[in-house]
Amino acid sequence: MIAPNCTTGGLPSVTGFTVSGDGQLDPIPNSTQQLSGDSFSGCAQVSFNPSGDVLVVTERTAVQPGLDNNQAPAGDEGVIVTFNVNGDGTLNATSESADNGGTDTCWFVVTDDGNVGFASSFFNPTPRISSYSISDSGDLQILQADAAVTEQGTADLALSSDSEYFYNINSFNGTIEVFDIGDDGSLTSIQTVQAHDPSDMAAVIGIAAI
């Protein structure tokens, strides 16, 4: 059984924090904002644009108001689409869907030069990390559908600050896998760490790296 994260019927929201010099977090007053999706939004990845003035939240199971459910894209598909963040904070797609052959796409990270992206696929029979090349215009091309074959429960991804190392958490068995990133975007496994106890609910899914 998998934890129904962000799909339990509450009102999903985001809250901002400041980080002190010693790493302590303090909530920013009046920063909590309700998300646009319904109470079963499936909210997941939260990311800033490079300039830090727009925050984007993915809502995996939300349905756009006014959109016929029969017209909504099918869930659990291993695809990636890129968007441009406009000056007013709105989004417009800059690529067609780029399939990786996986069952679903859970998380996506981009190297600091913006040239390579990595996506995780959570479920069997194809839990994996896929890699993509990203053009200056935002077009995507699959580099390796199976850049790394991982365990079921591969969820959140993170990069080191210099984009030399790649990390992913396997939320069922509680391990973090560490990879070296090659110049061509390839991944070479260098370590596996037991980060927490195995979880039948896949309840621990967050990871951060510096």
Number of domains: 2
The proportion of strand residues reads 35-45%
Helix/strand-derived class? mainly beta
Series of secondary-structure elements, N-terminal to C-terminal: EEEEEEEEEEEEEEEEEE
Main β-sheet, spatial strand arrangement: 11-12-13-14
CATH architecture of the largest domain: 7 Propeller
Unreliable spans are 68-75
Structure, explained:
There is one protein chain. The strands form seven sheets. Strands 11-12-13-14 form a four-stranded antiparallel sheet, with no helix packed on it. A four-stranded antiparallel sheet has the order 15-16-17-18, with no helix packed on it. The chain has no helices and 18 strands. It has two domains: 1-63, no CATH class; 78-210, 7 Propeller (Methylamine Dehydrogenase, Chain H). The protein has strands at 13-14, 17-19, 25-27, 33-34, 43-48, 55-59, 79-80, 83-85, 91-93, 98-99, 107-110, 116-121, 128-134, 140-149, 154-159, 165-170, 175-181, 187-194. Residues 68-75 have low confidence and may be disordered. With 210 residues, the chain is mostly beta strands. It starts with 12 loop residues before the first strand and ends in a 16-residue tail after the last strand.
